[in-house]
Specification:
With 268 residues, this protein is mainly beta. The chain has helices at residues 17-23, 80-88, and strands at residues 3-8, 28-30, 32-33, 45-51, 55-63, 70-76, 111-117, 123-130, 135-141, 161-166, 169-174, 182-188, 191-199, 214-224, 231-235, 255-261. The chain has a 16-stranded mixed beta sheet that branches.
Amino acid sequence: MYDYSIAMLPITVRVDTDQKYQRYEVPGMELSFIPENDYGHKEFTVAFLGGGKDGLALSLCAEVPKAKSREVQTYNSFSDEGIRAQKESVGISGLISLARGPKSHVFNDDCFELFIRPTDSDFYYGWEINAAGSCLDYRVALKQGLLTATTSETTEPLSGIVETTIGDTVLTFDYDWQSNATWNIQVEDEFLYLELFIPWRDFGLAEAPAEHTVWQGTVNRIIPVPGTSQQALQSLLDFEGKNVIPRFHQPDLFAKFTWIKTEKPQNR
């Protein structure tokens, strides 16, 4: 299990996340390709994860050498405007983004993901966002009996509660769960920038977790191989010394995230 210190800042982080993280020198976490699942790809992806008074925020920088520049576009899944932005997005030239709208099959596209599990939680939470800004959000029960499967269908858009087995682990996906996240995407100079903000209340919290609290999770990237069904996969999962199942939903391999208070900007 990889171990990262995650900065807890004494400010809000919903707006201008990347600029604030630069001021406080929030450390980055470079994603690695899952063994034997790079298919010749060498793109660089780094994630900056932190928290503030208002919630958790991910700032991600991904190399996209074939993509054309695009100005910042903002999205969410809880307002008419945010949902319309997902459905009507024209995507980014040079990247695959066929899915449109909330709860769509973004995992078939150029896609970026955050999975995170609060301390001792029976659930982890997922956000999967494609290059067109469409988001699939859900929670996953780690114990059987917490949720009852209502469907085996995976039609689009996804809904209901679906049970699946990955390796020896039974996971129950709750696609009816709705987050209050906001996110924006920009492409500039062959790099894609994603900022994802999640309020603490999405995790059932009234305030930020205490210092030295340990969460678990991973940040992932999917790069489709054109003309094939193959995907190059990057993540923070720890496959060292383990049988490789090329799937991200393996909570036993999640990284450890330890919250550490950062009181002052480091460049002052």
